[in-house]
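Researcher: Let's walk through a ligand-bound prediction step by step. First, I give you the protein sequence. Second, the SMILES string for adenosine-5'-triphosphate. Third, you return the three-dimensional complex as structure tokens. Ready?
Model: Ready.
Researcher: Here are steps one and two:
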Amino acid sequence: MRCAYERTIFVNEEDRFCIIECSTKDPNVPKEAKKKGTKDRIFFVAAGHNLSLNHSIEMELHGKWEKDRYGMKLKVENCIEIVPQTREGIIGYLSSGLIKGIGRATAEEIVDQFGAKTLEIIEFTPEKLLQIRGITSRKLREISKTYQESRELRDIVSFLAQFDLSVSKALKIHKEFGAQSLDVLQRNPYQFCGISGFGFLTVDAIARKNGCKPDHKQRIEEGLLYLLDNAQGNGGHLYLSKEELLAQAYGLLNHGFAQETVSMEKIGSVLTHMSLSGQLVSDNDCVYLPYLYGAERRTAERICELAGETELYPDLNDVLQEAQEKLGIIPAQKQKEAVNMCMENALSIITGGPGTGKTTVLKLILEVYHRLIGKTVMMMAPTSMAANKMSESTGVSGASTIHRALQLRYLEENDGEECQTLEADFIIVDEMSMTDMRLAEKLFLSIKPGTRVLLVGDPDQLPSVGAGNVFRELIDCGKIPVTRLEFVYRQQEGSRITENAERIRKGSCTLQYDDSFRFVPCKTQDQASDLLRSLYLQEVKENGLEEVQIITPVRRNGELSSNSLNRALHDQVNPPTFGKNEARVGARIFRVGDRVQQMENTETVSNGEIGTLTGIEVQDETTVFTIQFSDSREVHYEADDMAKVQFSFAITVHKSQGNEWKTIIIPMMYRFYNMLRRNLIYTAVTRSKSKVILIGERGALMKAIRISDVDKRNTRLSEQIIQMMEQNTGGV
Ligand SMILES: Nc1ncnc2c1ncn2[C@@H]1O[C@H](COP(=O)(O)OP(=O)(O)OP(=O)(O)O)[C@@H](O)[C@H]1O
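Model: Step three, the predicted complex:
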């Protein structure tokens, strides 16, 4: 059925599942599905993946009519975009954003000149476009390239539609294999397993449809690699035991077959072969992906090189006394010990929850170091907000994110290679619990032996988002001096937040409530969502958008997920008004004033950074978005880059790490099920500077506080450090 897109009802950004309203001239729309209509157009609802959300491109939709509680809709099985033939249609298509470098005015000029032959000319004799004013050779190259890509892309999208695969996946394949994509898809789809986001399961479905043998060696290899990769993402594991890996592989490779098609022996022999050829590393029956094994080993080696005592400073006590007097701080015994430890050891760790005096100790350390040694100090933290806080609270400017300090772009690049050597005599890293194995490797390999290093953090927070449990392992290995600051000084300032955070940390469910720490009971998800949004709007009115944050355990599924809350809040928090620029990117409309969060590391922005959209301008027929981050840095994004950005009125607990706000609002429902964990609620609560509002079921909060230690990760960093140190000292 030939249709036109009319409006979006719903789009899931992750898998591009869309529900849209369409119109058609086709009279075969069932009566029950007809929404409204004019004399010659019938309106109805269609649902499916990757539907066109572009008014300029018509679609041919094929599918089944299905009825649910919202009425009858077309469940789309196949959607083909139809390149338009009319003057308006071609102009609309060319200026739809699919083809870079052509805006509305240029499109009109092209069509005026070439008429119905326009698309043919762009495809076969694009040089003729040089006759058009404003089209330079450089622009022409861009137009030809993106036109070609959009054509190839359409073919890939059609092929992938039968596997329910999204446009974004088609884009990834196309980026990697270009014009060869379709051929590779049909012949050997396992090659796609190397493309990020292209999991074994997806590729396996394509391969099976194309008749690939289920016990083919490459299928088993890719299955094993997939399971190890999956163990990183799902459990934060660096390795799986051989037994566990074989059991998982057997289940995976035989799934969906009536009988055993891949034997355990065959999987075992492929695994052995992969270990011998270096595709995997098997060490003491622990099976690793090679780069993760390397990251763990190399980090352990460098830790051994960095650790050790420094020269003695006989004046240390006197200098500390002078520093205390200058700063007006009377440190407790533990705090003094922390200063001494840091000055007497090349590598040391300070841990403590909020308000335990970590910053106070840091100030003393910086002052003592300045007086005793006075060389270059470098301070860094995983997020820019944490880095800014470090500078502000210590009064020493220049703290940066770890990524910026290391000049890292994408972590995937240069695995195992040393990057940028850090030219400093003393390096302090805050919020160390957020650092995963791969970032830790980059960090430590960048620090030259002889540099003094102090790691600061709170190991009771969530472990890093990426695999590994670096900070906890460094503490637990027992080879690096650690000072634990436990006394909460901020309690004396009458804050319920630090007091309750401390109780949560210890697993106590007896919390104290007042205006700074509230629990608002709600029985249902709908009720909680309504109340949460109205409380959020009220808090924003009082404190400003930048100081209020919703932190939720889940990103998708349900009204209390960050995705749903952002959708529901966007127009309320930042409504469209006359003169406020906005622009559509895919299904989302971005507006000046929106709060957004970066979801991937790039050259200039670290994953997790939060900023405000301050400008949307059209420059040279390209829409440019300007985002200002917390350190006043302005970064420009084009429409494609905005895929790396999410609205951030609500964010997940994982993405909140290393940041803080005045007011935090947290939904807590039983339906969060396996997200109800102590370190999750502890992390969320400790993000607040002055007010915590919990909304939901009290029992869910209690359950979360009671459940600890579910994050056991397979890592051996601590074991490796111990082994290496003992070898170095001849087992003494
Ligand atoms: N020895 C001390 N005597 C009295 N007050 C102290 C002492 N140490 C710290 N404080 C006070 O306790 C409060 C919390 O200290 P600080 O900011 O250093 O903790 P923190 O661990 O860095 O907290 P957060 O992680 O929440 O920023 C501050 O007001 C600080 O002045």
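Researcher: And what stands out?
Model: The chain has a mean pLDDT of 88. The longest helix spans residues 137-161.
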